[in-house]
Amino acid sequence: MGNDFFRSFEGSEVDEGDLLADVAVEKRSTHLDLTIRISGYVMIPCDRCLGIFSYPLESENRLLVKFGNVHDESDPEIFTIPHDEHELDLGQYLYESVLLALPIKRLHPTDSSGNYLCDPEMIKQLGKHIAEETKQTDPRWDELKKLMNN
Ligand SMILES: [Zn+2]
After folding, report:
1. Ligand 1 center from residue 51 Cα (angstroms)
2. Measured in angstroms, how far is the CA atom of residue 132 from the centroid of ligand 1?
């Protein structure tokens, strides 16, 4: 699963990465028991500096596939497919598994002393931008300054 895979999903949060999916299938009398391991990395933006960084991703999921009358993927743990269907498209399932494996807080990794390996140039730019914005949009500061100068 690479860039083309992610870009095939509209509005994808992730559009770059390189992942391998390993699907082990065990046939049972009534269903298939799938163990799906995903490993690799995705490129995601850091919440702090907005720089793109490589996030190592590992996930393991179990999916049961039953045979029934209609195609039903509404339960994320048990898919139902018709008896005459011999192929299962796991694209959407893998994509969602990747999104679920992403952390809520996405930050650059830290170095050995616990400092985030953020882009220092970006942090500087963002800081400048925020400072300028508060200067421009808050006239109360000017009033306050006048008062303090008197
Ligand atoms: Zn960062």
Report:
1. 6
2. 21
**Mean pLDDT rounded to a whole number for the chain:** 88
Q: How far is the CA of 43 from the centre of ligand 1 (A)?
A: 12
Measure 60 CA to ligand 1 centroid, in angstroms: 27
Instruction: Extract the tokens encoding 130.
Output: 């925020």
pLDDT digit string, tens, across residues 95-117 = 999 999 999 999 999 999 988 89
The string of pLDDT tens digits covering residues 12-50 is 888 899 999 999 999 999 999 999 999 999 999 999 999
